[in-house]
Design goal:
heterotrimer; A mainly alpha; B mainly alpha; C mainly alpha; A: mainly alpha; Four Helix Bundle (Hemerythrin (Met), subunit A); two-stranded antiparallel ribbon; 33 helices; about 75% helix; elongated; B: mainly alpha; Helix Hairpins; 3 helices; about 65% helix
């Protein structure tokens, strides 16, 4: 499995190497790859349906417990098939769609990587690895959405999607780490085994919420749904792939994956369905008010995602089953519809549903395919969508807790779906042709391959639903934990579920009829809607980002004012306050030292140093200042000498000499002293300096007072001659015991000297 | 004596801080030198003071000898401090040549 | 600065300082001194000379230029590391030449000495590079 992912990676880069002549076949090559990967995984079907799990672990950094760890079980098998199969159709479609655009190599590069990342995500056994792939899909979808990067709308939408999903990704990571800290492992298998422990741990709720944030942002749940309609700025093949099998389905996949770990608790069955229901209703309601074909489809996707989340949240066997069926239903019809939408866009040059019409004569096949997909969306028999909807109703009827409310809202949402399906069909295909039709030549067939195949699947599985149940059973077993036979059939007899379906369809048709008869109704609805629901989440988001930027800009201006002195002042002030605070905390301390003046010559020396230091601070003559500075330095070297540090004293003397010499020589080139600051600021600085100096005095006293044993130093003294054959312990430390430090020091000096050299040399060359 | 040395250290710090808060280049550099001397002295003091017992082998009872480790550290620090000072001189000298002023408050923008 | 006294005295001082620097370097292991002090002393002698004449003149006269001093020093430092690696000891573990001759008894030769010589040359190079960069006009 690792090798397959590596093939995706390698091939995506190889795209750039394809010679110009064969560029037009790129899409075919990737499509064939997708198909063969599909076939490769399909071979595992017998094993998978026996309930076997195929896992693969490749060591990466075994010491850190970081391995590549893959798992092919019923659940990932299902998603792998979806990703590769729809990927295959999408690439065929992209071949037709992307003709005439520049930068197609880049496009295929992103798209190939994207499907590879999605495959990696569903195959991951290690959850950190899953997270890496999760972020990869976020980044790649950013690149894909911004593919037409010369358009401002594309860039904006791409940024929104990256920001929202990136935020979710981080919170997901936090959640995963919390779970990992409970079980001390990042393997999903371990997590499932320790599910009971996890659920009772106090970190369960925070982890759940963090993970759900990740899922909800990725799967465009309310209130994070706004990035998905924006994402329609991407080229249509991408939208088709994004909405049906990848990206947004990653969140759904993770919910399935973690259901055995986290599911079944009260939190799970309340938080998730509530969000799901809100999203479902918002999406379907808003879809009717849209004019752009792709926007309509995007909102129906949001609604469908809401349904999926709701079903997983209800967390009964029947609801999970319904979720799986609906996953397929939605993938099939949504991919087909997006492909058709792109086709119509290319044919007529517009996606505004009000300016479309009469396409039944222009594209009869498109009409048939489109109707199948739309019927599936509306849930009308004999499409797969019908079975899906029946099951959903059944699940809702049986759902514990808020069943009744959920059911009513679900019916309402489905009525909206029926309406929008009918509206789309009538607006696009019937009525008068309003726009110029372009001929696209041979490509037209290629445009329709995908939709045709998907429509056939919708009908085929609709009529023979048992075919599908074989694939769903193993996945169901993974998610719910025990095996169960699924019987799928059209029509469940005349029970309450059937009547609900009938009611949904009939009310949808009635509303549609009314809308058709009074065309103004739809327009009024739209304008009403734009007035009532005037909060545009996308705008709100942009506003938030913009004000955040302004906030940090102002902050930066305040802090980064550019005055060198005040930077230093701030640092010193904070240090002083902190140190004084520390002194205050430990105020009981008293030094037991006495103030003595013996030996007197050292006292005299200290007096000389103090006088020359003070002179330095206030002197007006440059030369005198430097001489005073030198006196200070030499004085300190005598202190070293008196207190047994001979080497230090010598070094200090020579360095002081060098500094003074350099100073005197450079001084000629610098201007005279000028008192630049006013008296007030000098007073202020003096106060700060005194506060700092006095706290340092206390620090020095404490440092001297400190009693500590010195095993390291004693070791050095004992072994200086025995092991390093040197009698000067300080030197032995420098060149032998701690030679690595000295090496570092020599390096620093070298860099400093080269810095000085370059700094002053570049000037010469300029002039 | 220790108290006197501690006061000296504090004073050197105070003079250093006062000087690096000046706007004139040369005072700034001298301030750096003072701070570096003060820090060296602080580290040196922290080892405890032993007079007249430099660490050489054989030097009698170990516990009575001066602590060699801070000495090695300070020796390194002195030479590094020298490097820093020269680098600062070069930097400020270049600044003066480029802008024609020695007022550090003129150094507000990164690029002009 | 053209002082005859300085020029003449620098000739003698020069030699004394150079000898003193080598002396400080070699005896540094047992007595006060070492690579840092030796290097600083040696560069002082060069600087003193340049004060007596002029930095440009002295820089021209130097057979080994400051940057080459640094390079030489760093190479010696690195060379001193290699024996410890070859002996499969921790990096920079001191390796000594052992022998019974009177010379080897009085002067111990080993990688730390090589290291110190490397430091010596690097310090000379660094100090001189500082000095000449700051003082030589265009």
């Amino acid at each position: 499995m690792l090798y397959i992912l590596l093939i995706y990676l390698g091939l995506s880069f190889a795209i750039f190497l394809i010679p110009e002549k064969f560029k037009k076949y790129t899409a075919f090559i990737i499509a064939i790859l997708q198909l063969s990967v599909f076939a490769y995984f399909f071979r595992f079907f017998p094993k998978i349906s026996n309930g076997e799990k195929i896992s693969l672990v490749k060591d990466w950094i075994p010491d850190l417990n970081l391995n590549f760890s893959f798992l092919l079980d019923g659940l990932s098998f299902l998603f792998v098939l979806l990703v590769t199969f729809i990927g295959f159709l999408v690439f065929l479609y992209a071949k037709a769609y992307m003709k005439g655009y520049s930068g197609t190599s880049r496009f295929y590069f992103y798209l190939t990587l994207f499907s590879g990342a999605m495959l990696g995500l569903v195959l991951s056994e290690n959850m950190i690895q899953l997270f890496v792939f999760w972020e990869l899909t976020s980044v790649l979808s950013f690149l894909l959405i911004s593919f037409f990067n010369e358009k401002i709308a594309s860039r904006k939408a791409a940024f929104q999607s990256l920001f929202v999903t990136g935020f979710g990704g981080l919170s997901l990571l936090a959640g995963l780490i919390l779970l990992g800290s409970i079980t001390d492992s990042y393997s999903i298998t371990d997590w499932i085994q320790n599910s009971a422990i996890i659920k009772t741990d106090s970190k369960y709720l925070p982890a759940l919420i963090l993970i759900l944030l990740g899922v909800f942002t990725k799967s465009a749940q309310f209130p994070f749904h706004f990035w998905l309609p924006g994402a329609m700025q991407a080229p249509t093949p991408v939208s088709s792939y994004l909405h049906s099998a990848t990206m947004v389905k990653a969140g759904i996949f993770l919910l399935f994956r973690l259901n055995p770990v986290l599911g079944g608790t009260t939190e799970w069955t309340y938080i998730i369905p509530v969000i799901g229901v809100i999203t479902m209703l918002t999406g379907s309601y808003l879809s009717i008010t849209q004019k752009d074909l792709k926007a309509v489809l995007a909102y129906t996707t949001i609604s469908a995602l809401g349904v999926l989340v709701l079903l997983i949240g209800i967390d009964t066997k029947i609801s999970i089953k319904a979720a799986f069926i609906f996953l397929f239903v939605h993938a099939f019809y949504k991919a087909a519809l997006f492909m058709l939408a792109g086709f119509i866009d290319k044919k007529t040059g517009t996606r505004d549903i009000d300016s479309l019409g009469g396409l039944i004569f222009v594209m009869p096949i498109g009409f048939i395919v489109g109707s199948v997909a739309l019927f599936s969306m509306a849930g009308i028999p004999p499409m797969l969508g019908f079975i899906g909807k029946e099951l959903i109703y059944e699940a809702k009827v049986q759902s514990p807790g808020m069943g009744f409310l959920v059911l009513i809202l679900g019916v309402a949402s489905n009525i909206f779906m029926v309406i929008i399906s009918l509206v789309l069909m009538s607006k696009a295909f019937f009525g008068q042709t309003k726009s110029n039709i372009k001929q696209l030549g041979l490509n037209e067939g290629l445009f329709l391959v995908g939709p045709i195949v998907l429509a056939m699947l919708s009908v085929g599985f609709g009529v023979f639903p048992d075919l599908l149940s074989n694939y769903i059973e193993p996945a169901l077993q993974i998610v719910t934990g025990d095996s169960m036979q699924i019987k799928l059939k059209i029509g469940h007899g005349f029970n309450e579920v059937f009547f609900l379906s009938l009611f949904t369809v009939l009310s949808g048709i009635i509303v549609f009829y009314l809308l058709n008869k009074y065309p103004n109704l739809l327009y009024n609805w739209r304008s009403f809607n734009s007035k009532v629901f005037s909060i545009d989440f996308a705008d709100l988001f942009s506003y938030g980002i913009a004000s955040f930027n302004r906030f940090s800009e102002n902050n930066t201006k305040l802090i980064q004012h550019g005055y060198h002195r005040y930077y230093i002042l701030t640092i010193i002030l904070f240090t002083t306050v902190l140190l004084w605070f520390q002194v205050y905390i430990t105020r009981g301390w008293q030094s037991d030292m006495e103030l003595t003046l013996r030996p007197l010559y050292i006292t005299g020396l200290i007096a000389i140093i103090i006088i020359s230091a003070l002179y330095c601070a206030f002197a007006k003559s440059r030369l005198a200042t430097i001489i005073a500075m030198g006196v200070t330095g030499y004085g300190i070297s005598f202190i070293y000498l008196y207190y047994s540090a001979v080497d230090l004293a010598i070094t200090q003397i020579i360095v002081e000499t060098l500094t003074v010499v350099l100073f005197v020589l450079v001084l000629q080139k610098l201007p005279k002293f000028a008192i630049l600051s006013r008296l007030r600021s000098r007073m202020r600085d003096a106060v700060i300096a005194l506060a700092f100096g006095s706290v340092m005095t206390i620090l020095a006293l404490k440092a001297i007072d400190l009693e500590f044993n010195r095993p390291i130093s004693d070791y050095y003294i004992e072994n200086s001659y025995l092991k390093a054959y040197g009698k000067n312990v300080v030197n032995v430390i420098l060149v032998d015991f701690r030679a690595l430090d000295t090496l570092g020091e020599v390096t620093v000096l070298t860099i400093a000297s080269l810095g000085v050299f370059v700094l002053l040399k570049s000037k010469k060359e300029k002039r | 004596m220790e108290i006197l040395l501690a006061i000296l250290t504090g004073l050197l710090f105070a003079v250093g801080v006062y000087l690096i808060l000046r706007r004139s280049i040369i005072k700034f550099i001298i301030g750096i030198i003072f701070l570096s001397n003060a820090t060296n002295l602080l580290v040196f003091l922290s080892a405890g003071l032993v007079s007249g017992k430099p660490v050489f082998v054989p030097g009698g009872e170990i516990a009575m000898q001066a602590d060699p480790l801070p000495q090695a550290l300070v020796l390194t620090a002195i030479v590094i401090g020298f490097g820093i000072v020269v680098f600062t001189i070069a930097l400020k000298y270049k600044f003066f040549k480029t802008t024609g002023t020695d007022d550090l408050d003129q150094l507000q923008q990164t690029d002009k | 600065m053209n002082s005859t006294i300085l020029q003449i005295s620098s000739r003698y001082l020069n030699i004394i300082l150079l000898i003193a620097s080598v002396f400080a370097l070699i005896r540094g292991h047992n007595q006060p001194g070492g690579g840092f002090i030796g290097g600083l002393l040696a560069s002082l002698s060069v600087i003193f000379n340049s004060l007596a004449y002029s930095p440009e003149e002295i820089l021209k006269k130097l057979r080994i230029k400051p940057i080459q001093h640094i390079a030489l020093g760093l190479i010696l430092v690195l060379l001193s590391i290699i024996p410890s690696l070859l002996a499969h000891k921790p990096v920079m573990h001191g390796i000594w030449i052992k022998g019974s001759s009177a010379f080897l008894q009085s002067v111990k030769i080993g990688t730390p000495l090589l290291f110190d010589i490397g430091v010596f040359f690097t310090v000379i190079g660094v100090t001189l590079l500082f000095f000449f960069s700051l003082l030589i006009k265009k």
